[in-house]
Amino acid sequence: MVDAIFWCLRIGHQWRNLSESFPKWQLVYYYFRKWQRDGTLERLNWSLNKLERQRVNKEPTPSQLHIDTQSVKVAPFVAEDTGVDGN
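The chain above was modelled as a monomer; its predicted structure follows.
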């Protein structure tokens, strides 16, 4: 079931286009929504991230957060800069 969910999310297909090698799409989607609502997917993601960080000899949880503001400025739908920078 987890493989089917990951496959669909990774490929970006609609649930109805799920490969026939997996269970019926309705069943896969049922578990996806159930696990999404009850927090199972969030806990799974957190655990996998923690294991991967430990595998590469990093602290289990990140100690810093970096935000790239330039990606917002170069977006085509954002108007020209106006106002004071503040720096």
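Residues 2-59 form one domain.
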